[in-house]
Amino acid sequence: PGGHYRPPHCFARYKSAILVAYRNQEKYLRHLLYYIHPFLQRQQLSYTIYLIQQVGTDSFNRAKLLNVGVREAMKDEEWDCLVLHDVDMVPENDYNLYICDEYYPKHMASAMDKFQYTLPYKSFFGGVSALTPEHYMKMNGFPNTYWGDGGENDDIATRIHLAGMKIVRTSPHLGRYRVMDYNEETEMPEPWRRPPSRHNTRKTWKADGMNTLQFRLLSRTKHPLYTKITVD
């Protein structure tokens, strides 16, 4: 229960927490869960899938939800790897291993179908990425101040470099993802907005992240295919 799995006949070499920030995307979620459980089990990982759900009417804040997910997941287990996963993306290649690089944050979605299986730009870090808890804390997690869609990825890439690390990428023939598209039921993506005084990542990264994370935990429930963490 709770979306947790351990291989029954062997000792798993890696323990990965799969963290999915979520709001009102039921179709995507069903699709992802249908594919991802057998995919991860074929890799013989020990893993748990965490769904971090935002309620209320504020703009979606993916980066902050992932911070919440990391904090809550680390209460359950000493995870080797934190895999930050968009709900609308499905891996195409079984050899794309959901484990971390020992030294640096790993960008896994290096070839997405909606970008013709290439990177949209050089510093792109969106979609699916894998960081050890040490990497995550070293860069002070993700920013809490991005409301709306997408702007946080550039901030995260900058943080990685400011924290003295670099991005490694899964090779494109392995890091292939299909991006699901059910336009009729998703919210319109909002234009990106962020408090203007915090735009300079170089100045703000140490004061906006895991060390300033505040949230109200509304519930934490175990469902058959995932553990759901609801915050406002």
Automatic annotation (TrEMBL):
Residues 106-179 form the Galactosyltransferase C-terminal domain. It is a single-pass type II membrane protein. One of its GO terms (cellular component) is Golgi membrane. Its main location: Golgi. Keywords: Glycoprotein, Glycosyltransferase, Manganese, Membrane, Signal-anchor, Transferase, Transmembrane, Transmembrane helix. It holds the Pfam family Glyco_transf_7C. One of its GO terms (biological process) is carbohydrate metabolic process. One of its GO terms (molecular function) is galactosyltransferase activity. Pathway: Protein modification; protein glycosylation. Belongs to the glycosyltransferase 7 family. This is B4GT3 galactosyltransferase. It comes from Pteruthius melanotis. The lineage of its organism: Eukaryota, Metazoa, Chordata, Craniata, Vertebrata.
